[in-house]
Amino acid sequence: MRPARGRGKPRGGGGPPAPRIRRTPPRRIIGRGPRARGAPGDAVPAAARLCLETPRLRLRRLRLADARFIHGLVNDPAFVRFIGDRGVRTLADARRYLRSGPLASYARHGFGLYHVALHDGTPVGLCGLVKRDALPDADVGFAFVPAARGRGLAGEAAAAVIEHARRDCGLARLAGVTALDNLASMRLLEKLGFAPDGLVRLAPDGPELRLYGRAL
């Protein structure tokens, strides 16, 4: 979950326009539920790399070449505080994190966390869908670099992901989870139409988290 403020809304009220989905040839839809499959890492063909586009952002599937960016993001103090220490100390660790997390999720579910960049190519964060064993629904996850926070980028990216979940993945409901003191992420989820749904632990010995949900 993103550790800092975002101001975007999924629809209405001055929020970001509905995202455009750009597909690379051949024209086939990627990330459409668990039937979508691809080999992990950079072996995934270009045609299998989902691209969501918003007025300021492009979202695509992560690849092993993103290891340096991931290394910096997951070691940001706010990421460690609100999301957790992923044990990524080296670039090799970052590649392991990519293989066992986002890349494995693409192969298993057809969706996962996506790389988020400005239109000029500057990487600014992660946003996407995470399917956890402890939750019946996929949840929206987001994390942005310090320079990208407070600019509404997380809301803009998350709105695109929510539309992607409904239109391309065929999901009927999404969840959201935040640390109990992550007020910025709570506000963002509520702006995106999520409602509080109690407390949850993702692991028996894990911290108690705030759970949100919304229908699509």
Features of the shown structure:
Aminopeptidase; 3-stranded antiparallel β-sheet; 216 residues; disordered N terminus; 6-stranded antiparallel β-sheet; alpha+beta
Secondary-structure topology with pairs:
Blueprint: E1 20-22, E2 51-53, E3 57-61, H1 67-74, H2 77-82, H3 91-109, E4 113-118, E5 123-130, E6 139-144, H4 153-167, E7 173-179, H5 183-191, E8 195-201, E9 208-215
Antiparallel strand pairs: 1-2, 2-3, 3-4, 4-5, 5-6, 7-9, 8-9
Give the CA-based shape. Answer: globular
Major sheet size, sense and barrel closure: 6 strands, antiparallel
Span of the ends, CA to CA: 19 Å
The level 1 CATH classification is Alpha Beta
Average of per-residue pLDDT values: 85
Walk across the major sheet and give the strand order: 1-2-3-4-5-6
Write out the CATH superfamily name.
Gcn5-related N-acetyltransferase (GNAT)
Number of domains: 1
Provide the CATH architecture.
Answer: 3-Layer(aba) Sandwich
Q: What is the beta-strand fraction?
A: 15-25%
Q: Number of DSSP strands?
A: 9
